[in-house]
Write a structure and sequence with these properties.
Elements lengths: L1 H16 L1 H17 L3 H20 L2 H10 L14 E5 L5 H7 L9 H12 L4 E5 L12 H14 L4 E4 L5 H12 L7 E6 L3 H10 L5 E5 L15 H24 L24
Parallel strand pairs: 1-2, 1-4, 2-3, 4-5
Helix pairs in contact: 2-3, 3-10, 4-10, 6-7
Length: 281
């Protein structure tokens, strides 16, 4: 019951508080005030709306929010010599479009899947797990893990056993359901694959469940060398800002609700499974 309330509240909160929704609310409110003859107040709201749009269009605010999350764990770090299992979290497949077109449809997080296949080749004895249901409030019938086998088989994993977990609706349920499915043992070495900005929250939940994992972050969006480069890119900047705000709010919500024990685990996180300097071959 608690998980259902958390899922519902998080979706409804984000529906209103996402930056694109707030910009729309400001614009519509300003227009309504104009219609009602409240000219001074309408000008203030519309001016604020215009100022926000100009800042978003020219400044990479989203990259500034994502960069500290994406650099929390090193990309392409040294891999352990031995791995007991590899988990990839859903987010790279558009399940509804896949059902519509009856073939795998990927989105901009497809690197989660390509990295998963590559790592599976490096560790032929490792257990493989794809965890991803539906994060939609209204379309729970379209679950990523039900369409992932199409793609993974096409990419060469048809000879490997892959466990698919399709009931999870968010990161917390990814971990809980995968733990129940796999029953990991102390001392096992697991690799976790997910988007770099999402990795700190995912690791925090794994730690809260006393399941150490090695992070393999992919799907980076920020460019530290061009972090404050001013150029016009309204749609891309707005999308990154939306992702950054959402992830930071999710980190805070998970910490407050007890779904994670740390707001931002990372380099000094005692729970994380130790990696060795020896790279797998």
């Amino acid at each position: 019951m608690t998980d259902n309330l958390f899922f519902l509240a998080s979706k409804l909160f984000w529906l209103v508080m996402s930056p694109d929704s707030l910009i729309l609310l400001l614009a519509v409110s300003g227009w309504l005030l104009l219609v009602a003859g409240r000219i001074a107040l309408a000008r203030r709201l519309l001016s604020l709306c215009a100022l926000i749009l100009i800042c978003v269009a020219f400044l990479p605010l989203g990259q500034a929010l994502l960069q500290p999350l994406e650099t929390r764990y090193p990309a392409a770090a040294a891999l352990p010599a031995e791995v007991d299992g590899i988990i990839v979290l859903g987010g790279g497949i558009d399940a509804e479009l896949s059902a519509t077109w009856q073939q795998p449809q990927l989105n901009d997080a497809a690197e989660r899947l390509t990295a998963f296949v590559w790592l599976a080749g490096l560790y032929p004895e490792a257990r493989l797990v794809y965890s991803g249901g539906s994060g939609s409030l209204t379309r729970q019938q379209f679950r990523e893990a039900e369409y992932a086998p199409w793609l993974l088989n096409q990419l060469g994993l048809q000879e490997r056993e892959v466990l698919y977990e399709s009931e999870s609706r968010n990161t917390h349920e990814n971990v809980l359901n995968s733990r129940e499915l796999l029953q990991p043992q102390a001392g096992e070495n697991w690799l976790l694959v997910t988007s770099a900005y999402h990795m700190p929250r995912a690791v925090a939940v794994f730690c809260q469940q006393d399941w150490p994992v090695n992070a393999w972050p992919v799907d980076q969006h920020s460019n530290p060398g061009q972090l404050w480069q001013v150029q016009f890119s309204l749609l891309n900047n707005l999308a990154l800002l939306r992702t950054g705000i959402r992830e930071w709010l999710a980190l805070l919500a998970y910490r407050i609700s007890g779904r994670s024990m740390q707001l931002l685990p990372g380099q000094h996180n005692d729970c994380a499974a130790p990696t060795t300097a020896e790279t797998a071959s």
